[in-house]
Amino acid sequence: MEMRKGNLMSVRTDIKVLDATIRDGGLCNNFEFSDEFVKELYKANIKSGVDYMEFGYRASKNLFNPDDFGKWKFCDEADIRAIVGEENVSDMKIAVMADVGRCDFKTDFLPKNESVVDMIRVACYIHQIPAAIEMIEYFHTLGYETTCNIMAISQASSEQIEDALDMLGQSSVDVIYLVDSYGSLYPENAAKLAKKYLEYGEKYDKAIGFHAHNNQNLAFANTIETMSYGVSYLDATASGMGRGAGNCAMELLLGFLKNPKYNLYSILTFLQDYMLPLKESGVVWGYDVQYLLTGQLNRHPREAMAFTAEKRTDYRNFYVGLLDND
Amino acid sequence: MEMRKGNLMSVRTDIKVLDATIRDGGLCNNFEFSDEFVKELYKANIKSGVDYMEFGYRASKNLFNPDDFGKWKFCDEADIRAIVGEENVSDMKIAVMADVGRCDFKTDFLPKNESVVDMIRVACYIHQIPAAIEMIEYFHTLGYETTCNIMAISQASSEQIEDALDMLGQSSVDVIYLVDSYGSLYPENAAKLAKKYLEYGEKYDKAIGFHAHNNQNLAFANTIETMSYGVSYLDATASGMGRGAGNCAMELLLGFLKNPKYNLYSILTFLQDYMLPLKESGVVWGYDVQYLLTGQLNRHPREAMAFTAEKRTDYRNFYVGLLDND
């Protein structure tokens, strides 16, 4: 255990909890959250001690027609201000996500001192690192905190990962995220990968984050396992709401963390008042057999999402189909 | 990682998978499974490579009125034979559970050579170890394989655990089980406890098992984490069916294990044909916020089970009530 940072009793003041409910959960309901929902989540997060709240994507309106999506796919400054006020006076910081190749980063971002946004999270696949770094440097000059969230890491080679970490290490990025998009990592290899990220993080003075998916019911386990070795930015969502099998549940994470700044009361109230009705309204996410299978096979969950949307339950046929397509 | 036994690619031929669906799942439906259900599960387990199938409890008919329960609370020899035939000709072994203080062990067990049962699992709390050992020695003379499943281990002291392991080490028991009855262990402390069990297991030549509960969505994670350090008897249930938040799901475990003797096809068919209809019929189990809370607080799930039975969703009140009762 000697390589772990702290133990199950210790407070790690370097930990930052980021709520990604509106952003990753938005992938389940086309970003169509009511303002009341977002405002109550904002308040619940503040009271729970959450450090960052991600409001959604700032996607290109040239690529995506705003009529086809809820507003949190675009996160207009005015829409965020309608939730947090003209100034976000809380201690909780505000994040938005910008996908490489899916945003107009040169035109759609104000300088930080004119914005309520604090952090921009740049999401990319590993071959897009140069494009991500261009965006990161630009956002840095605007004055924002930045992260780079390298997605689908379970399909990248060790060499690619090392090259990417080295390039990001030399950039202005603040946080490098390990993202288990396919929910295919086990605690043992998640920890191994995290140690590699942490090695570069130490070398270049970057914090490391972890973003989990729950395909194999391991989102929480992988989050606390990577954390135990030094990962400090931890993504979670209310009820684990997120694409496909969803993410690490905020209620699991906050109940685990020992820092008394975190507490469960407000998030529990939010779950009963807002998350349960959302589920009852027919929005679907969470662990299920079809996601387990794509996770085990280290594959994009798109086939499992289609299986879910069609309300199929023929798991065996689905599995045979996946293997035939392998 | 040097203390781990094998890695994520290796086959561990010492692994034994035990299906506890009828026994732990029986706690969710009063043991009222149809013969068809049990027979199909038996066949699916054999085809999936499962090593042991637990058919239920052999509880005292003096203590419990057979009219009040399904037959798998009692596991009469004739009822098991109705499923497996006069002789269980498969490679899969058959287990039943006997609770200390809740069975008539001197009268209700045939000698092994007159029974289709192979293994008797003796379940006890840590203060009942002497009584458990008396039963184990008796079952040993009858010719059975035996395990001792020490329940609620998260509330025992290190000293108690060491004393218990030392006593069991000197007994005839074959397997000593670490049982996370409250689903309160994290991978980090589950691994620590497992290492202690393994230390005594090595000293006394006993195999070590793990039985997980899923209160914090960690049943699978804790199972594979403890396994990685040398635990070899692994309990799982179809769809994770088991008391309260349920257990480690068989489909997660079989998909993880690298030994080609294990496969997913038959269990997937069983899930779609039998487990989904069972859930739809109104039998309730599985991870939910109320179980997370009792798990985090290291408490018996009884209050969470009552909350579930009453179909309550006022998580916050429930949590306040738990804390007031602490």
How are the SSEs ordered, and which strands pair?
The structure is a homodimer of 326-residue chains.
Chain A: E1 16-19, H1 21-29, H2 35-48, E2 52-57, H3 77-84, E3 93-99, E4 119-124, H4 129-142, E5 145-150, H5 158-169, E6 175-179, H6 187-204, E7 207-211, H7 219-228, E8 233-236, H8 250-256, H9 265-280, H10 289-296, H11 302-309, H12 315-324
Structure report:
2 copies of one chain form a homodimer. Chain A has 326 residues and is an alpha/beta fold. Chain A has helices at 21-29, 35-48, 77-84, 129-142, 158-169, 187-204, 219-228, 250-256, 265-280, 289-296, 302-309, 315-324, and strands at 16-19, 52-57, 93-99, 119-124, 145-150, 175-179, 207-211, 233-236. An 8-stranded parallel barrel of chain A has the order 1-2-3-4-5-6-7-8, surrounded by 5 helices. In chain A, helix 2 (35-48) runs antiparallel to helix 9 (265-280), helix 6 (187-204) crosses helix 7 and helix 10 runs parallel beside helix 12. The longest helix of chain A has 18 residues, at 187-204. Chain A is globular and about 55 Å long. The relative contact order of chain A is 0.13.
Tags for this entry?
homodimer; 12 helices; globular; alpha/beta; 8-stranded parallel beta barrel
